[in-house]
Design brief:
about 170 residues; mainly alpha; globular
Length: about 170
């Protein structure tokens, strides 16, 4: 199944010229730019475009997940131990790296924005394929697939995390 049939680009002013092949990539991502290290901005934009093209995930979804997870702080660490922009647990990061044939050199690599987005996008894509429903896929990305499957079995559809991502989507979707 197609993960996201819409290949939405960001509205002008959020990330100008966010298209594959554009030479002039922005240094900052709109309103969240103050939270980014300028050196990371080009790598983040390139990684988001690569994920969009590889997984057919829209840029607005990727940006909303990153904003929800880390507030665009590439050094973010959650209270549960999730790391980087897309807040990957080290075991999940290692699993995705193995799946993508990326040599795992340790947890520190999850602080690299490009690697974090590559691994996080793979995981998000897998959750969309596994669940098919956006809210369940987003909830599974955040809370883990087994937990969401258990909730779904008793008729509960998680709404908190998907709702926060949808709030982010309002800022990025055209």
């Amino acid at each position: 199944p197609v993960v996201n049939p819409l290949d939405c680009l960001l509205p002008a002013g959020v990330v100008p010229a966010l298209q594959a092949g554009d030479d002039a990539q922005p240094l900052l991502l709109g309103e969240v730019g103050h939270r980014l290290h300028a050196a990371d901005a080009d790598r983040i934009v390139s990684s988001i475009l690569e994920a969009r093209n590889r997984y057919d995930l829209s840029t607005d979804v990727l940006l909303a997940v990153i904003e929800t997870e880390s507030g665009f702080d590439s050094r973010a660490v959650s209270s549960k131990g999730a790391l980087g922009l897309m807040q990957l647990m080290p075991a999940t990061g290692q699993e995705m790296a193995d799946h993508l044939d990326i040599p795992w050199t340790g947890n520190e690599m999850l602080y690299d924005p490009a690697i974090n987005i590559q691994l996080g996008s793979e995981y998000l894509y897998q959750m969309f394929k596994r669940f098919g429903h956006a809210d369940s896929a987003l909830a599974a990305y955040n809370a883990g697939p087994r937990r969401v499957e258990g909730l779904n079995e008793i008729g509960i559809l998680p709404r908190d995390y998907p709702g926060r991502v949808r709030q982010g989507l309002k800022r990025y979707a055209p």
